Amino acid sequence: MNNKKKSSPWKSIQVGLITFLVMVIFAYGFQITKVDLEELRSENRQQSLTRVTRALAQPEIFEYDQVEEVVNFSIYVPCRPDDSGEAAPEQNTSEPYLIVTPGCAAPGEVVQVEGFNFAPYTVGPVRFIPGSDSSNVVSLGRENAETDADGHFLMSMEIPKRPSDSVQYIRATLRRNIGSPHFTQTAYDTWNKIVETVFLALLATVFGTILAIPLSFIAARNLMKTVKSPLTSIALSVLGWPIGIVIGFIVVRWVGDFSSVIGSNAWVNIASILISPALMWFGVRWALPQEEINLPSQSVRFARLGVLFMVILIGFYGLFQLASLAMSAGKTIEVPLGSFGFMGYFLFQVGDIVAIITPVLGALAAGGALSSVLGRLGQYGSEKLPASGIKVLNLILTTIAGATVFGLVGQLVEWLYQIGEPLYTLWLPMMTGAIAGLLLAFFTKPKDSLPIGMVIYSITRTFLNALRSVEALVMAIVFVIAVGIGPFAGVMALGLHTIVSLAKLYSEQVESILSGPLEAIEATGANRLQTIIYAVIPQIIPPYISYTMYRWDINVRMSTIIGFVGGGGIGFLLQQNINLLNYRAASAQMLAIAIVVATMDYISSALREKVI
Amino acid sequence: MLQIKNLTKIYDGGVKALDNVSFDVPDGQFLAVIGLSGSGKSTLLRCINRLIEPTSGQILWNGEDITAASQEEMRRIRRKIGMVFQHFNLVHRSKVITNVLAGRLGYVNPAWSLINRFPQEDIDKAIKQLERVGIAEKAYQRADELSGGQQQRVGIARALMQDPKMVLADEPVASLDPVLAHSIMSHLEDINKNDGVCVLCSLHFLDLVHRYADRVVALNEGKLVFEGLPTEIDDKKFKEIYGRDAERVG
Fold first, then answer.
1. Which residue of B79, B111, B158 is in closest CB contact with A525?
2. Contact yes or no for A530/A243 (Cβ under 8 A)
3. Which of A10, A128, A412, B192 has its CA 20 to 30 A from that of A580?
4. How many domains are contained in chain B?
5. Contact A523 B83 (CB under 8 A)
6. Helix (H) or strand (E) holding A179
7. Mean pLDDT across chain B, nearest whole number?
8. CB pairs under 8 A between A and B
9. Which of chain A's residues have a Cβ under 8 Å away from the Cβ of B86?
C-alpha cells in the first residue's frame, strides 16, 4: 500500500509524458499525411466535387435514341457598315427558326436568341459557329436552351471575340428522346467485363484451393513435429529430388515424343485413350492387391514395381493422347458450334494445358517417388547396418547432398543475376555445401533421428509468410510482364496469393484439430498418409469450406481492381473511364462492382450456413 | 507373453511418468492397471504400442522387441494391438462404418485405402463386429450422432477389426455412467474369454477390478507399487496405492 502511494506522482508524470508523446506522434502524422481542410474549402475543389458527384449519381446504363433539330442563323460579327443591325422580320412558317436581336453584333456584345416552332420540352446547346461554312463542326461558347410547351425559347448569349468579314452563324441544336430506353454501350461493356471478373475470381479460387491443401499439411506444426528421419535417409531423399526430376522429365518427354509419332489422328487417339486406362486398371489390380497379410517375396515385389512403372508410362501416354484429342476436337467443333464455340476453345485450351503440364507433373512425380524410395532405403540401412558403417555412409552422402543443394541454389542465383562467374555461382557454393554437409554428418550421431519435419515446416512457413505479404496487385504487375496484359495475368496473381494465404489459414485449422482420433488411427497401424486421410481430413472439411468461401469473396473484390494494373476484369474499364473523366460510365462500373460484391457476399454466407 | 523390463519414461519437461517398471503379462490374461490420475497408467499403455516413445527399458512381446522395432515393423506390430480410449477418439464427422473400417488400415494396401476403398470381406466383417457389440443398425450414421456408450462400442468394434492379439484399454469407462460401464466391460471380458485376447485395462473403480480382472498392477508416481490378485488389495494395500488420505468408494 505504502509503496503504491510513493510511486503515484511518478505514474502521473509517466501518463503526462505518454500523452505528450501521443500528441507529438499525431502532429507529425498530420504533417506527413498532409491533412489540409483549407483545400477542401476552396471553391475549385467544391465545384469539381459537385460535378463528379452528380456524374457518379447518374450511372450511364440506360439511354434513349435522340432526334436533333438543328437551325442556323447567319450573323455578321462585327456589323457591316450597310447593316442596320435590326432583327430579321418574323417568318411565317411551321419549320423551326431562330431570331437573334440585334441581327449583327460587335465581338463581346450580348445578343438575345429566340427560337420558335421547336418541339416542346427539348433541351440542347446554342453555339456560335465561326467561319463562313454553315456545316462547320467547330463551335465556340455553349449555352443551354430549353423549350417551353409551345416549342419556344428565349435566351441571351455573348458573342465570342471572333470578328470576320464573311457571314458566321449561331446554331441551336435541340435534342429530344424518342422510343423506350435501352442499354448503353457502356452497360454492355460493363456486363462483359463483370462476367470476366467473376470468372477470374472463380478460377483463381479453384486453382488456389487445390494447391493450398497439400501445402497446408506441411505447414501444420502438429503433423510435422513427429516427422523425424535419420541423416542417411534425409541425405538420400534430398539427392532423390533433383535426380528424379531430371529422369522423370526425360522419360515423360520421351513418352510425349512417342505419342506424337503415333500421331494426332482422332481414331488413334480415341483407341489409345480407351485402351490405356484398361491396361492401367489391370496393372494396378495386379500390382496393388487390396489386402496382404504376409510380406510377398522379393522377386514378386520387383515385378510389381516394374508393372507399376509401366502403368505410369502408359498413364502419361494416355494423357498425351488425351491432350492431342482434346486439341484437335476443340479446333474442329469451335466453328460449327456457333455461339457455343467457347466450349471448343475451352477443350483446345485444356488439351494444351495437359500437354504442357504433363512433363512437369511427370518430373515432379518421379522426383517425389525417387526421393521417397531412397529415403526408405536410407531408413532401412540406418536400422540394419552397424553404426560405424552408417557414419561413413553419412559423411559421403551428406557431402554430396549438401554440394548438390548449394550448387543448385548457386545456379539459380546465376540464372537470376547473370553473374557469369562459375567460381562464385557453382564451385564455391558446392564447396560450402559439401563442407556444411560434412560437418553435419560429423557432429550427428549416426543413428539419431533428426527433426526434418520441423525444418520443412519452418521453411514452408517462412516462404508462405514472405509471399503473403506481397499484395496481389503487386504480383499482378509481375505476371502482366510474364504473360501479358489481360485476365490471365490476373488469374495467376490472384491464384498465387490465394495459395499462400489459404495455406496459412488452412494449416492453422489443421493445428487446431483434436489429437484423439489421430492417435487412435495411428494405433491401428496406419501409415502417415492414411492417418491424414482418415483422421485429419474429416475434421478439417468444414473450416476448409468456410475459408474457401471467404477467399472467393475476397477474390471477387480483388479481381475488380486487379485490372488497374492490367490484370483484366472490370478494373481496366473503370480506370480507363476515370482517366478519361467519364464519370458517368465509371459510375456504371462501380455500381456493377457493388452489385456483384454484395451478391457474392450474400451467396457465400448462405452457402456457409448450409454447409457447416 | 508380454514382458516389460525396467521401463522408464521421462517427458521433455523432466517429468518422470514411469520409473523402472517391470512386470509380465501371460497370454490371455485380463490385467487391470490401477492408480491415481497422473500415476502413469496412460503412459504405460501408450508405451506398449509406442504411441509414446519410452526413454529406456525394454518391451518384449512373444520374444519380439517392440522398443527396437523400426517404423515399418512397428506398423505390423500395432495392427495386432487394438486400443480403446477414454474419450473414444472416433472421427466425429465420419460414418460409424468408416470408423470401424479404420481398424483395418494396417492390413489393407495403402494405395486403395487412400481413396476409401476397402475389400468387401472387410466391410462384411465390420458389420459383423458392429453386430457383436449390438449397434449394427447405426452403421451408416455419423459417429457424433451416437451416445457415449454407443461411441465406446464403436471404439471396441474398431479394435476388434484389427484381429488383435492384445487390447489396450485406457480407462474405457471413465466417461460413462456405471450401468454403461458394466456393458462396456462385459464386451471386453467377452473378447478376453472367448477370443483369448490379452487385455490390459486401466481402471478407476475397484469393484470393476474385482469383477473383471484376473490380475492387478498398481502404479503410484510412475513406480510399480503392487502386483497381484484383485482379492489381495486390502485396506493397507489400498492406502499404499492411493495414498494415506484415500477413502474407498463403491
1. B79
2. no
3. A128
4. 2
5. yes
6. strand A168-183
7. 89
8. 107
9. none
Nearest to B87 among A383, A516, A534 (CB): A516
**Is B70 within 8 Å of A291 when comparing Cβ atoms?**
no
Give the residue-averaged pLDDT of B29-43.
91
Residues of A in contact with B158 (CB under 8 A): 520, 524
The answer to whether residues A157 and A199 belong to one domain is no
- A17 — contact with chain B (CB < 8 Å)? no
Residue A603 has which C-alpha cell?
A: 451467396
pLDDT digits (tens, 9 = 90+) for A414-467: 888 877 777 877 888 888 889 988 888 888 887 778 888 899 999 999 999 999
Partner-chain contact B114 A538, CB within 8 Å: no
Range of the domain at A160: 64-183
Is the domain of A87 the same as that of A122? yes
Indicate whether A396 belongs to any domain: no
Residue B133 sits in the same domain as residue B204? no
> B51 vs A524: CB contact, 8 Å cut-off?
no
Chain B residue whose CA is closest to A514: B89
Supply the range of the domain harboring residue B48.
Answer: 1-80+164-173+198-244
For position A198, which CATH number holds?
1.10.3720.10
Evaluate whether residue B224 is within a structural domain: yes
Contacts of A382 (CB under 8 A, 6+ apart): A230, A231, A232, A233, A390, A446, A447
Q: Which residue ranges in chain A fall short of pLDDT 70?
A: 1-7, 83-92, 141, 263-264, 290-296, 611-612
Neighbours of B83 (CB within 10 A): 29
Chain B contact for A226, CB < 8 A? no
- The pLDDT assigned to A445 comes to 80
- Give the 3-state secondary structure of A471-499: CHHHHHHHHHHHHCCCHHHHHHHHHHHHH
B122: closest chain A residue by CA: A291
Mean pLDDT of B170-176: 89
Q: Are B82 and B29 in contact (CB under 8 A)?
A: no
